[in-house]
Amino acid sequence: MERRGEAGGRVCMSQTVFPAHADHRGELSAGQLLKWMDATACLAAEKHAGVSCVTASMDDIQFEDAARVGQIITIKAKVNRAFKTSMEVGIKVTVQDVLTNVEKIVSVAYATYVAKPVGAGKIELEPIKLLSAQDHLEHTLAIERRRIRLGYEQVFENLMLESNKEDTFEDEDAVSTEFTHVQSIELVQPPHANHHGNTFGGQIMAWMETVASISASRLCHSYPILKSVNMFKFWGPSVVGDRLVFNAIVNNTFQNSVEVGVRVEAYNCEEWIKDQARHINSAFLIFNAVNDKGQLLTFPKIKPTTKDGMRRYRGAVVRRRIQLARKCMLSAKEDKPSDPWERSNQAYMSYSNVATLTHLAAKLGWEITSTLDDVKIWTHEEGDVLSLKVEMQVKIPSRLAFSLLSDFTLCQQWDKHVLSCEVLQAVNEDEKIYYVTSLPVTGDKPRDFVILVSQRQPCKPSEPYVVAVKSVTLTSVPPSPEYCRSEILCAGFEIHSESNSNCKVCYFNQVTSGLMPYLVANLTGSSKAIEDTALECIKFLEREGSKS
Ligand SMILES: CCCC(=O)SCCNC(=O)CCNC(=O)[C@H](O)C(C)(C)COP(=O)(O)OP(=O)(O)OC[C@H]1O[C@@H](n2cnc3c(N)ncnc32)[C@H](O)[C@@H]1OP(=O)(O)O
Question: What's the predicted TM-score (pTM) here?
Fold first, then answer.
C-alpha cells in the first residue's frame, strides 16, 4: 500500500503555561512539555503519512531554558525526511513572555515515528517535498542523524568493552545507589491513550520523568531539574488497561549532574497474574539541582553495590562520553578571525593570553574521560563551551619541560599533525608570534595558524610554568587560498613541578572546529590520536631531557 506525499508534514501547537502545567517552582514541568512535544510531532508525522503513527524514539533532548506560568509555549514540528516506514520529525520549542514579547529557545529535538495503519501491513512512505533551503539542509542532516541513532548501540557496546575494568570505590562518603531506587505503578486509562487505545509516548515519558526526579531528589535533597534525556526508545506498545511499572535508580553522578535510569514494564490482566512483564521502554535522564541562589549543587559520589549497578555505573560514563561528543559537534563554532596584533593592544593581548589560560586551568568541574598510565584526558563544560585538558606525567624537571615546550619550532618533533612552524616575530623574551601549518582536518586543504605564544616563569615554587597560546591576526600574513586559516581561542600548557626530576604537564584547549573531530573520535572510541600525541610529547621531553 502506498501513500501520496503531501507538502508539509508541519504542525504548530501554542499553549499558555497554567499552574496545572507547572511544578513547585512555577516552571512548566518537563513531563507536560514532553507530552506536548510528542503529540505535536506525531500529528506532523500523521499529516505526512496519512495514517496513524507511533513514536519509535526521541533522540537526546536538551532543555536550554525554562518556561514560567503565564508564558506562551510554541511547539513547531516538521517532517524532515521520510525513510522507508519511518520518518524523522524535527521539533522546536520556544517560550515567549507575554509582557516583554522576548522569545527564547527551550529545546530542539528530533523524534522518529513509524507509520502503523490500523489492521493493515506496513506502508512505504512517499518522500517529503522540500520547499526551502532549510528543508534541503534538514533533509540532508536527517540521514546523518539516523546513522548516529541506529549506530548508537554499537558505539556504546564498543566503549563499554573498552571501559571494562574494575573501578574501586574508596570514598567512604559515597552513597549506595540502592538508596535511590524508586518504584511506581500506573494504570493506563482512556485519557492516557490515543483513539486506538495506544498509550501516548509523551505520557509514558512524563511518568518516567516523575519517578526519575524522585530518585534524583534522594541524592541532592533539593528539587532536581531535568536538563537532558539520553534517547527514549519505545520497544513495544502498551494499551488502555495495561499496568505500567516504573523502576528508577541513580546510575552515576558527575560534578553538577546525575544520571537516572528508568525501566518501564507493561502487564495486561493475564500477564499481571502470571508476573510476565513486557519491557516496553528504557531511558536515561540527566538532572541538575540548584540552591536558592540559583547556583548549581555538587552531587555526592555514589557507589554501586551489585553487578548490575556496576554495569549501569560504567554505562553512565560511556553515555556521558557520547553526549559530550555530540555537544562537541554542536559547540564547535565557525572560526572567527582573531583580534589584530597591533602596537596599541600588544600588552593587553599578552595579558589576556595568559589570563584566559589561567582561568581555564583553574575552573572547577573538570571531568575525567580517559586514563592511561601517564596520560589522563579531562573535559569541561560551561554553557555551550567545551574544553579539553590532557595531563601528562613526565620524568624531567619542570624548568626543562618549560624550555622545550615554549619553543614551538620543536613541536614538529612530537606532534605529527604539525607540518611546519616558524617564528614570525620575537616580540621580546616572553612573547613570540609563530606561523604554523598543519594537516587538514576535513577536505584536503592543510590548515594554517598565526599564534601568539606567551611564556611565564612562576613567582613561587608552588606556581606552575605557563605557556599560553592564542590566535592573532597579522596584516602581513593574510589568509591564503592554499590553506584553511584556523583559529585557537585559548590553549597552552601549565607545567607543575612534582619533584626535582618529575613534573606534571597539563595541556589545555578550548574546543574549536579544528580540534572537534579529534575530540569526538576520542570520546566515541574510534581514535586514540589525542593519547598518541600526548605519549609522543612525553617521549620527546624525556629524550631531550636526558641529553641535558
Ligand atoms: C502521540 C501518539 C503516538 C504515540 O505516542 S505511540 C505510543 C508510543 N510508542 C509505541 O508504543 C511504539 C512501540 N514500538 C513499536 O511498536 C515498535 O517497536 C516499532 C517502533 C513500530 C518498530 O517496530 P517494527 O516495525 O517491527 O520494527 P522495524 O525494525 O521493522 O522498524 C521499522 C522502522 O522503524 C525504524 N526504527 C525502529 N526502531 C527505531 C528506533 N528506536 N529509533 C529510530 N528508528 C527506529 C527502523 O529503522 C525502520 O525504519 P525504516 O522502515 O527503514 O524507515
Answer: 0.75
Q: In CATH, which superfamily holds the domain spanning 172-331?
A: Hotdog Thioesterase (3.10.129.10)
Q: From the centroid of its chain, how far is CA 139? A: 23
Q: Give the chain's mean pLDDT.
A: 89
What's the per-residue H, E or C state across 324-348? HHHHHHHHCCCCCCCCECCHHHHHH
CATH code for the structural domain at 333-546: 3.30.530.20
Instruction: Give 89 Cα–ligand 1 centroid separation in angstroms.
Output: 13
The CATH classification of domain 8-151, taken from the options 1.20.950.20, 1.10.10.60, 2.70.70.10, 3.10.129.10? 3.10.129.10
Cα–Cα distance for residue pair 78/277, rounded to 1 Å: 35
Distance CA 34, CA 42 (A): 12
Nearest CA to ligand 1 atom 1: 39
User: Residue 176 CB: number of other CB atoms within 10 A?
Assistant: 15
* 226: β partners: 287
Residues 400 and 521: beta-carbon distance below 8 Å: no
pLDDT in tens, 254-286: 888 999 999 999 999 999 999 999 999 999 999
First CA to last CA across the chain, in angstroms? 79
Is residue 234 within 8 A of residue 204, CB to CB? The reply is yes
Question: Residues near ligand 1 with C-beta < 6 Å?
Answer: 38-39, 42, 54-57, 83-86, 112, 114, 116, 149, 194, 198-201, 233-237
**Do the bridges between strand 418-426 and strand 431-438 make them parallel or antiparallel, or are there none, so unpaired?**
antiparallel
DSSP-derived 3-state class of residue 455: strand
User: What is the tens place of the pLDDT at every residue in 435-483?
Assistant: 999 998 767 889 999 999 999 998 878 889 999 999 999 999 999 999 9
Q: Which atom of ligand 1 is nearest to the CA of 39?
A: 1
CA of 233 to the centre of ligand 1 (A): 9
Task: Using the atom order of ligand 1, give the atom closest to the CA of residue 42.
Answer: 1
Distance CA 62, CA 226 (A): 9
Q: Show the cell assigned to 429.
A: 623574551
Distance (Å, whole) CA 177 – CA 188: 29
For residue range 21-57, what is the model confidence (pLDDT) as tens digits?
A: 999 889 999 999 999 999 999 999 999 999 999 999 9
